[in-house]
């Protein structure tokens, strides 16, 4: 590894600096960089239909038309245009030929060349000379300002701000629902009434500081060029790539901050440089920390951009990491689990990240509502353990589960919600797309001696109706769906299956990004269509739970119940879906 050594490991390498200087004033210089850019071969797709989902458009492009798109971007919900990035000039020409004149949902599509966007980082540099204080010194955003925008706001005021945000989301939901029903049937709008639901006061977090059990720290350089393991103070899109220390942050526990600072010593001493978002070069990229079980379980995941490291060099790096945390400066942390992860820039044909266990236990553990949960490096687990207990209790209360109830746990992760519901219900059926999470869920059920749970791995689009059939619900019994999807919500097909199943009379929806799932809410509640054939749901109760003190975010729990209609009206809703 001699060729990787630098005289001063804290200084930016000469080659990297030359590249930065060369690109400094070129707003399109990133297109010439060796790193793959989504912007190099972009097209604009026009005349899209009034109603479609991202998943539908992606399926059309990548599966139906078999185009090799690297990125699809819709500016807003139901936008009449979208941008598609391809991987080569030949593929861009092919996409234009295929899409131009193609008929989709009765609309004739039009595809044209689209210009790449200007590099936001370079664009900001051209104006940052004016961004100085009275002494002529440029003001740098801190990690706290970036990650904890409400950190200096009294907590009671934080709760008011978050409740106001939820109120705005609900207003937008009403507007979108009215619009959807108006377009479906203008003749009945005279009878239309806005949904009526109960909004309960926000549930505060039991712990305000040091509550995060997982943090992903970036590895890079601060505004003065020094190596830092901390938080990026902005995004590349916003023109900021500096990484600043987390010492002043309130969210991470002190032990996490200590781990980040101690690992920084390893990075500084290493002959490998830190990763640069400008050049796409450098090795140390991310430190992920999971701290559980009252800080007894500490998992570290070292994210590396391997570039051209040989297998021997990789093995030496892994060996050095183990030695550092078991014999050297890192020993004081008492790390219980250590992983090495490769985080290459994604290119065509890549399968994703490579992660390798190199020391200690393979998992960490935590407790919620008296149940013990095993957590893998990639598994989802609520980031605020104490607040998660409050959240899960709200879900259980909203669902009003009985011994004859079957719970359908959609996007179940490691099974936390479903298993917490299991003692109140007849059966729990959980589904999750991440295989390791399902392995954890099955282990967690067995470890807690829960025998009425069933977990399957796969896409919710494919599994919802399958698991409803497996549940084999008797007459007089019911299924309650609990949906806790990723930030962007469920695909239209998954919502369609939930909506079309007569056996689901109640649904609890949990979201960490309520604005992004308004379309899901509308699809559940709007009048029946050819796609959404089932009787619509009605929003009944809404409550926010503050899982993220000092930030703008909160979790939202919504209870939906199937609309009560007479038999004649039900027949007109076309509930003829095979289950």
What does this structure look like?
The protein has helices spanning 14-23, 54-64, 89-99, 120-125, 143-147, 155-184, 254-269, 311-326, 385-399, 416-421, 435-447, 460-471, 492-500, 518-525, 567-572; strands at 42-46, 71-73, 82-85, 103-104, 107-108, 110-113, 198-203, 214-221, 227-232, 243-244, 284-292, 297-304, 337-342, 354-360, 364-368, 371-375, 405-410, 427-432, 453-457, 478-483, 504-511, 537-545, 555-562. The protein is of the alpha/beta class and 579 residues long. The longest helix has 30 residues, at 155-184. Strand 8 and strand 9 form a beta hairpin. It has 15 helices and 23 strands. The model is unreliable at 1-14, 124-138, 346-352 and 574-579 (pLDDT under 50). The chain has 3 domains: 1-32 and 120-139 and 212-383, OB fold (Dihydrolipoamide Acetyltransferase, E2P), CATH 2.40.50; 42-113, RRM (RNA recognition motif) domain (Alpha-Beta Plaits); 152-209 and 385-563, Vaccinia Virus protein VP39 (Rossmann fold, 3-Layer(aba) Sandwich).
Mean pLDDT: 86
Output the radius of gyration. 26 Å
How is the CATH topology of the largest domain named? Rossmann fold
The largest β sheet comes out as: 8 strands, mixed
Number of domains: 3
Number of helices, counting only DSSP H or I runs of 4 residues or more: 15
Write down how many β-strands occur, each being a DSSP E stretch of 2 or more residues: 23
Give the name of the CATH architecture of the largest domain. Answer: 3-Layer(aba) Sandwich
Assign an overall shape. globular
Structural class: alpha/beta
Q: Whole-Å distance between the termini?
A: 60 Å
Strand content: 15-25%
Low-pLDDT segments: 1-14, 124-138, 346-352, 574-579
Protein name: tRNA (uracil(54)-C(5))-methyltransferase
GO biological process, one term: methylation
Active site: 512
Catalytic activity: uridine(54) in tRNA + S-adenosyl-L-methionine = 5-methyluridine(54) in tRNA + S-adenosyl-L-homocysteine + H(+)
């Amino acid at each position: 590894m001699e060729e990787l050594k630098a005289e001063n490991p804290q200084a930016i390498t000469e080659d990297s600096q030359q590249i930065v200087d060369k690109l400094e004033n070129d707003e399109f210089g990133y297109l010439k960089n060796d790193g793959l850019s989504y912007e190099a071969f972009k097209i604009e797709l026009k005349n899209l239909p009034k109603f479609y989902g991202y998943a539908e458009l992606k399926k059309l492009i990548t599966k139906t038309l078999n185009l090799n798109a690297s990125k699809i971007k819709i500016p807003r919900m139901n936008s009449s245009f979208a941008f598609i990035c391809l991987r080569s000039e030949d593929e861009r020409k092919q996409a234009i030929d295929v899409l131009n004149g193609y008929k989709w949902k009765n609309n004739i599509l039009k595809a044209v060349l689209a210009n790449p966007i200007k590099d936001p980082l370079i664009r900001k540099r051209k104006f940052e000379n004016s961004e100085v204080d009275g002494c002529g010194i440029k003001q740098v955003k801190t990690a706290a300002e970036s990650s904890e925008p409400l950190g200096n706001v009294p907590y009671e005021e934080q709760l008011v701000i978050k409740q106001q945000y939820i109120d705005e989301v609900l207003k937008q939901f009403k507007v979108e629902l009215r619009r959807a029903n108006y377009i479906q049937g203008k003749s009945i709008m005279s009878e239309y009434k806005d949904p009526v639901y109960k909004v309960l006061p926000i549930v505060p977090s039991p712990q305000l500081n040091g509550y995060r059990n997982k943090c992903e720290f970036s590895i890079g350089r601060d505004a003065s060029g020094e190596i830092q393991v901390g938080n990026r103070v902005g995004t590349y899109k916003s023109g900021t790539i500096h990484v600043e220390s987390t010492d002043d942050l309130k969210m991470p526990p002190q032990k996490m901050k200590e781990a980040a600072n101690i690992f920084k010593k390893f990075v500084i001493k290493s002959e490998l440089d830190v990763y640069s978002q400008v050049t796409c070069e450098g090795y140390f990229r991310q430190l992920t920390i999971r701290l559980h079980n009252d800080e007894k379980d500490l998992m570290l995941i070292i994210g590396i951009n391997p570039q051209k490291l040989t297998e021997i060099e990789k093995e030496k790096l892994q060996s050095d990491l183990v030695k550092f945390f078991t014999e050297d400066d890192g020993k004081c942390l008492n790390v219980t689990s250590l992983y090495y992860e490769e985080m290459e820039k994604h290119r065509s044909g890549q399968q994703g990240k490579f992660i390798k266990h190199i020391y200690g236990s393979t998992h960490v553990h935590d407790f919620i509502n008296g149940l013990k949960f095993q957590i893998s490096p990639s598994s989802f687990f609520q980031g605020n353990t104490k607040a998660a207990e409050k959240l899960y209790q709200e879900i259980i209360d909203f669902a009003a589960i009985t011994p004859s109830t079957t719970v359908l746990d959609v996007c179940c992760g490691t099974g936390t919600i479903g298993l917490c519901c299991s003692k109140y219900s007849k059966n729990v059926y959980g589904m999750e797309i991440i295989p390791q999470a399902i392995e954890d869920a099955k282990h967690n059920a067995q470890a807690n001696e829960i025998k009425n749970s069933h977990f399957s791995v796969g896409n919710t689009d494919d599994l919802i109706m399958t698991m409803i059939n497996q549940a084999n619900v008797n007459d007089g019994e019911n299924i309650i769906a609990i949906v806790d999807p990723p930030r962007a919500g469920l695909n239209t097909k998954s919502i369609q299956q939930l909506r079309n199943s007569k056996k689901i009379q109640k649904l609890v929806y949990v979201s960490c990004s309520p604005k992004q799932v308004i379309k899901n809410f509308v699809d559940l509640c709007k009048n029946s269509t050819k796609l959404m054939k089932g009787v619509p749901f009605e929003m009944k109760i809404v409550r926010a739970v503050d899982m993220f003190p000092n930030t703008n975010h909160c979790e939202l729990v919504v209870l939906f119940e199937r609309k009560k209609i007479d038999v004649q009206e039900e027949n007109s809703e076309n509930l003829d879906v095979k289950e």
